[in-house]
Amino acid sequence: xxxxxxxxxxxxxxxxxxxxxxxxxxxxxxxxxxxxxxxxxxxxxxxxxxxxxxxxxxxxxxxxxxxxxxxxxxxxxxxxxxxxxxxxxxxxxxxxxxxxxxxxxxxxxxxxxxxxxxxxxxxxxxxxxxxxxxxxxxxxxxxxxxxxxxxxxxxxxxxxxxxxxxxxxxxxxxxxxxxxxxxxxxxxxxxxxxxxxxxxxxxxxxxxxxxxxxxxxxxxxxxxxxxxxxxxxxxxxxxxxxxxxxxxxxxxxxxxxxxxxxxxxxxxxxxxxxxxxx
Amino acid sequence: xxxxxxxxxxxxxxxxxxxxxxxxxxxxxxxxxxxxxxxxxxxxxxxxxxxxxxxxxxxxxxxxxxxxxxxxxxxxxxxxxxxxxxxxxxxxxxxxxxxxxxxxxxxxxxxxxxxxxxxxxxxxxxxxxxxxxxxxxxxxxxxxxxxxxxxxxxxxxxxxxxxxxxxxxxxxxxxxxxxxxxxxxxxxxxxxxxxxxxxxxxxxxxxxxxxxxxxxxxxxxxxxxxxxxxxxxxxxxxxxxxxxxxxxxxxxxxxxxxxxxxxxxxxxxxxxxxxxxxxxxxxxxxxxxxxxxxxxxxxxxxxxxxxxxxxxxxxx
Lengths: 278, 316
What we know:
The structure holds 2 protein chains of 2 kinds. Chain A has a domain at 63-228 and 248-274: Orthogonal Bundle (MetI-like fold), CATH 1.10.3720.10. Chain A is an all-alpha fold. In chain A, 74% of the residues lie in helices and 0% in strands. In chain A, 45% of the residues are buried. Chain B is mainly α. Chain B has 2 domains: 13-80, no CATH class; 87-315, MetI-like fold. Chain B is 75% helix and 1% strand. Chain B has helices at residues 2-19, 24-63, 79-86, 88-119, 127-135, 142-152, 158-165, 177-204, 209-217, 222-233, 235-250, 254-259, 271-280, 286-315, and strands spanning 66-67, 74-75. In chain B, α13 packs antiparallel against α14 (286-315). The longest helix of chain B is centred in the N-terminal third of the chain and has 40 residues, at 24-63. Chain B is flat. Mean pLDDT of chain B is 85; it is low at 1-22. Chains A and B meet through α1, α4, α5, α6 and α11 of A and α1, α2, α4, α5 and α6 of B.
């Protein structure tokens, strides 16, 4: 009995330590966003009065943080909308219209998940460079389209939607077909409304990975005037004398959308992550 | 999963066969029509993945046999691949990646497993709080948390000041090659433990508590239950998290780029980062960079096959 009690105290002790380690960097980030660089170096653990000043520095620096918020939002929203539409159509197609040939194609598409991005970034960079040189300036390097395009259809999302489609009641398909609905109407008017929670979960993961993406925007957007939020933060962090008050304020802003999604939609958030494994 | 897929495939194709009813010809036309719809639905994704993954992949393979600076490239045979074997930075990057793999992945996964077993106990008070707190690092972007870590562990940062406060000498986190690797490992563990915990938790919820009760009656302690029951039961999920963590580690870029820039003296450099430097920091050498990238491709395929084989064998 006594042994059990000491074990449970140990458990709580362990969990409290782990939780503290998990939360502390957030506290440090929020507190530091209200302090100036000197106070941060002096390890001030209380809220300061420099939040407004940090924000002003952030938005008035020549790195143009305000514009980057716009770029990042545009890229993340457009990527999410297109990726959900294209991948759910594909996932639906592979599951509802099953055939041996399409199953084989699906397995080939899945192989693309194993391809590391570092092997793709060079040819993609040259591809967009070549397209830009042909005069189609709207889709070459340094355009928002070049950041969006490689992510509008991923094998991961197709797989995710195919797995989720398995729970879609298939007998209503027959009824709809007998009623004379064509296949696109069935998809838009019956499938999409029923699968709302799958779309929500898919939207969260896609938005988040797009909002946080670093390597491809870093390669595709070489023009310093066109940078997404992670690129700006990274540039600020790698300067010789980083102003951490300003950087932390920037990180707080960069974390707000994903934090908001997490606290508002915890269930779909988790479903989006594990939904494809089950 | 594969067998499950093929079973489902048989079921659905047989469903379609019966749709048309007894009249052979109408059944045939319906099947044909549905088949056309099927290709219509999946065609867009086939085109896009071909254009943005398979075509670039072939282009990278061809490029890896070409030499030259910038855009002036010509066929160079195996030159790039021979150069790989003499490249000190490649050796360093591979060495660092394996250190991250050997230490970081097991530490993180074991920690995640222990945490999720504790969290799965319905009598634990404050479960929701603990779960949310430990998952919280996952909402940060890789760049954001890297910068936070860089600040906390800088030479005069809060962690070192804490150390000197309790009488220990400060650690040169970013200027000492050994501690810089430790810092990278600590950071990645902080960011991803909660992520893996979620997978284990969802797996644990599928296990009947009565199995554990039976083991307790037989006198099994917590450690024995963990090793002999939880781990075997969660095997597929553990395998999945191992594969995803391994693939993630092999492609490590954001953290190293933002915390240490690969330094000191390439002490933390990774393969992805070396590829990036070869293309965009030094005089661009796309051919050689592609050859370096193929190391990662080969490693990912090789490790995934090994892990699937191990998982498959012990499952039987």
